[in-house]
Each structure stands twice: as structure tokens, then as C-alpha cells.
Amino acid sequence: MSAGGPSAVTVDAVTRTANVARATLYRHFPSGNDLLAAAFNSLIPPSPPPPAEGSLRDRLIAVVLDQAEAVAQAPVALTAMSWLALGRDLEGIPEPRDSQAADSAAITTLRERIAQQYAAPFDAIFDSPAAAELGEVDRSRAIALLIGPLVIGRLSTLPDFDYRECALAAVDGFLYVQRHQNAAAGWPATVNGTAASIESAGA
What we know:
The chain is mainly alpha-helical. It is 61% helix and 2% strand.
């Protein structure tokens, strides 16, 4: 898969390369979906931890830039998400007849791994004392706001797309919106522990 993409992962290719019989492959991977999910899972790199020091903004920027580099240089997780979202279809190994059947353990594991890949460094930041100024953070929405623009940039294939500029804009936009909502809920917006207006928080 690393050499030829998901379409290269076929029964013939795997059995030939591994020098095993089809029956052996079926015992380990009952469907093509399981086989490809396992391949994706083995190639997704671990999440880099956020920096231990720095302001909330600086730490978020560092994490988003790390994710931007991963999306730009080694988009295995992005490819896996596309495969999961667009429907899983691999010729050569029969799939379950019931299309409404629950996902296999391998696919569930892959979904969890991708979610963990993106969430772990942000969870570390949002769970820190410095993030108290943001109030209650919807983690899923936060990741969508912070990582989504980078994914769109990757999919656009624009040669001059500036991931760093996009990351800075995404972080500043997220912080502004989160502080605004926190203030609207009755809590003062703060910057580095000091009360501030919404205008200065978003500046």
C-alpha cells in the first residue's frame, strides 16, 4: 500500500508477496476490508505530543503545524479517512452479504486509531490549566476547525498552498470564536489569565 496506494492491496498481490495460500489469508483477514484496514492501521504514524511550554496559542499552533506536515508529507490518515468515508470496496475477497452489517473489528480499530491520531495532542492542551479560559470546548468541532482547512488545502492540490499561514489563521479563528462563546455564556474572556474584551481576545 505504501508503494502503490490502496488499489495495490489485492489478494493476489498480498498472497504473492507474503508467499502464503489464499486460505491462510482468509483465516487472518475474513474480508478485503479487514485486510486494507489492517494495512492502513500499520502505516499511520503516532501522534506527536504538544510542546510542554509556551502560551495556549503557541502550543495550538505547534500542534496544528505538526498535523499540517503530516497531511502534506505523509497523508496516510487522510487516505484512510477517504477510504472509510467513500465506501470500502476491494476486489478479490468476498464481502459480507449484508451491507448493513456492523463494521468489523479491524475497521472499528482503524476508525479509533484515526480519531486518536488527531485528538490526542489537542486533548493534552485542552485538559491543561491554560485552556480554562476557553470554557467548555467541543473537541470534535475544535479539531474540525483547526485541522479541516489543512485537509481541504491538501485535497485542493494547489502548489502554492501555505500550510503555515493556514494553520495560524485556523488557530486564531478558533481562539476568537471559543473565547467569544465563553464570554457569551457568562465567563470573562481572558488572555494569559487576564480578563480582556472580545475584541482584544480576537486581535
